[in-house]
Amino acid sequence: MEKDNPNLVDETMQRKDVTSSLTQPENPRGGQKGFILHPFGESGPVLEIIGDSSTVPAEYLAVGPMDGRYAETGKKLSPYFSEFALVKYSVMFEVYWLVFLLNNLHTSDILNSYESEAVQEEILSIYRTFSGKSFMKVNEFKSLTNNDVKSVVLFVAERLKVLGFDNLMSFVHFGCTSEDIINVSYAKMISSALEEVWIPAAEKLINVINIITNQNLGIPMLTHTHGEQPVAPTSVSKEFAVYLYRLRKSLKNIQSISICAKLNGDAGNYSGLSLAFPEVIWQKLSEQFIEGFLQLDFDSVTTQIGNYDCICNILDGILHFNNVLRNLDLDMLLYISKGYFKQIAVKPEVGNSSFENSEANIKMSNAICNMLSNELPISSMQRDLSDSSLLRNIGVAFAYSLQAIEQAIGGLQKIEADKEIISADINSRWEVLLHPIQAMLLKYGISDGAYSQIKKLTEGGTVYRDDIHKFINSLDVLSDEDKTVLLELAPAIYTGYADDIAKSVLYDLEN
After folding, report:
1. DSSP state of 376
2. Domain map of the chain by residue range?
3. How far apart are CA 49 and CA 267, in angstroms?
4. What is the pLDDT of residues 461-474, one digit of tens each?
5. Other CB atoms closer than 10 Å to residue 19's CB: what's the count?
6. CA dihedral 343, 347, 351, 355 (to 10 degrees)
């Protein structure tokens, strides 16, 4: 019977409570104590989980790569997408809205008494002098209210009191819902990050490809389909010009997308505003604030939350740009593996995985862009609050895309066309001239038999120059002039308008 088997051990004896395997030894070097896990019992292998991390820079202890390995990229976007940035842009909204009301709500006796330019400059200073100390003060209010927007409102009201403008405290956040402040803040964060960080990086990438296209004019190259199947020749410059054209077009699309915001109260109906000051046309005044004061496009019809359609359009645009770049990354990896391009070694670097890393980070950016674009436009009834958590990941999508762009730039700046290998490959592939021969036969009305005649040439394996010339000379239907045209062809010559196309793309970019 099973219970009589001496080799079987009670299962409860084999399992040790995980917590019993954790000890907290004193660290003889000082600093943070570390947990030590004994997964195989006290006498088994030891794995130190934390250890002494007191002297380790913060970026190397970060959970996410944008605060760790790619911290330099993260720092570039931190002024736009960090929690500090969100609070600062929220303070900006409250201050700007108050100053706007001072200048435009003339039926309020309270506001009319604070119309002087000096007073407004002092109010604007609440935003302009916002600092780390200010942020911590907002956090103090948040610990009491557990509400992001309310903590900002309390901070601005307190600053007004310090300035001696107590009567204005009731007009902070006047007629607004929390989503008014949040949707404006994110709209400004995204527009600023695009204009000041992401678009300049994309333009730098395009400029690098522009340089490579110029440098490689006049170099014929074999094209491939279905993986390794050689097809008609092209030129190195034209193939880079394709990406130059596509990326520039994709960037123009992103730049053309308007970034929208709304300001219409808790149900999108201006209810509180119109009740307090019914003589004011609030739709017009809100549009004036959003478009004139904030330089955003006005979303005129919404629920309690913004529609997010503009943000989704931006995310979709970045996703498309990412995919074009990913295509370039993959092509470069194949070209390098074929020896068409050499990677320039830079001492003391070991290896270069720029294109692989760029592609991986594109996948991360695309996953987040796609998720946000699918989820943000959907909200139960007037608002279900899921957007609050989702919005905080927009910066992550931007960061992975920015990292991918910078890695691709790094990779492209360290490549060089190997003209000898490219030339040797194209000049050994005489079978690529079968296509122009077929085109010439079609010119003479020979359609049914053209392909079958040409196919016979490839049945024996490798096609050589003499095979091509012998076949051309056997085509009695061709005029002597057309035979001469075909006989003078070589794989490296049959590139069509390749370089002309590249030059036209370069010209369009410069002009």
Report:
1. T
2. 1-56, 77-174, 180-263+304-418, 428-505
3. 50
4. 788 999 999 999 98
5. 6
6. -50
Measured CA to CA, the distance from residue 422 to residue 97 in angstroms comes to 62
pLDDT of res. 50 = 52
| Rounded distance between C-alpha atoms, residue 473 and residue 487, angstroms | 8
Q: How far apart are CA 112 and CA 120, in angstroms?
A: 12
Q: Which residue has the higher pLDDT, 461 or 365?
A: 365
Residues near 405 by beta carbon (within 8 Å), at least 6 away in sequence: 201, 202, 204, 205, 325, 358
Query: Cα(first)–Cα(last) distance of the chain, in Å?
Result: 89
Beta bridge partners of 415: 343
Q: What's the one-letter identity of residue 336? A: I
The H or E element that residue 415 is part of is strand 415-417
Return the SS3 of 36: strand
Lookup: tokens for 200 = 């300049």
**Encoding tokens for residue 428?**
């050994």
The beta-carbon contacts of 369-377 under 8 Å, at least 24 apart in sequence, are: 369/315, 369/316, 369/318, 369/319, 369/322, 369/397, 369/401, 370/315, 370/319, 372/311, 372/312, 372/315, 372/397, 373/312, 373/315, 373/316, 373/319, 376/308, 376/311, 376/312, 377/307, 377/308, 377/309, 377/312
Which homologous superfamily is 428-505 in?
Fumarase/aspartase (C-terminal domain) (1.10.40.30)
Q: pLDDT tens, 194-209?
A: 999 999 999 999 999 9
The pTM (predicted TM-score) of the whole model is 0.86
State the chain's maximal CA–CA distance in angstroms: 101
Q: Are 160 and 193 in contact (CB under 8 A)?
A: no
* CA distances for 449 relative to 411, 438, 455, angstroms: 48, 10, 10
Pick from 326, 331, 407: which is nearest to 367 by CA?
326
Summarised one tens digit per residue, pLDDT across range 154-212 is: 999 999 999 999 999 999 999 999 999 999 999 999 999 999 999 999 999 999 999 99
| Cβ-based burial of 212 (10 A; exposed 0-12, middle 13-18, buried ≥19) | buried
Could you tell me which CATH class the domain 77-174 is placed in? mainly alpha
Q: Are strands 260-261 and 297-298 parallel, antiparallel or unpaired?
A: parallel
Instruction: Convert the pLDDT of each residue in 419-433 to its tens digit.
Output: 999 999 999 999 999
Output the CATH code of domain 180-263+304-418. Answer: 1.20.200.10
